[in-house]
Amino acid sequence: MPTIHTKEQYCYARELMERAAYQAAITAFSRFLESEKGENTACCIEACLCRADCYAALQKPEAAIQSVFQSFQYAAPTAAACFRIGQYFQEQQKLETADIWKKLADFCGELPQNKKEK
Description:
The protein is an all-alpha fold. It is built from 7 helices and no strands. It has helices at about 5-20, 20-35, 40-55, 60-70, 80-90, 95-110, 115. Helix 3 (about 40-55) packs antiparallel against helix 4 and helix 5 packs antiparallel against helix 6.
């Protein structure tokens, strides 16, 4: 397989995710994160969160939450990451913990409109 540059790897992974090829997208996001080495912080955080969404789509909540936590290696928690953690704990019926993470999401900043409504 020919070498893919890191930005192309990221775009390829996003395309796979949009086409619901979740397992392939997970592999592509992981390759991107391994090759990027934190050079582009925003893309690394987004790759972790997208990979988490892919794991969630495949009904693998533990892998999803680990991918969200990996985003903390690149920068302070984002609202999107905290919101996903809150959702995870809500699904686990740990409502107090979920509430804390969702409040932290509000503190961290603005969430995309479609995330607020869930």
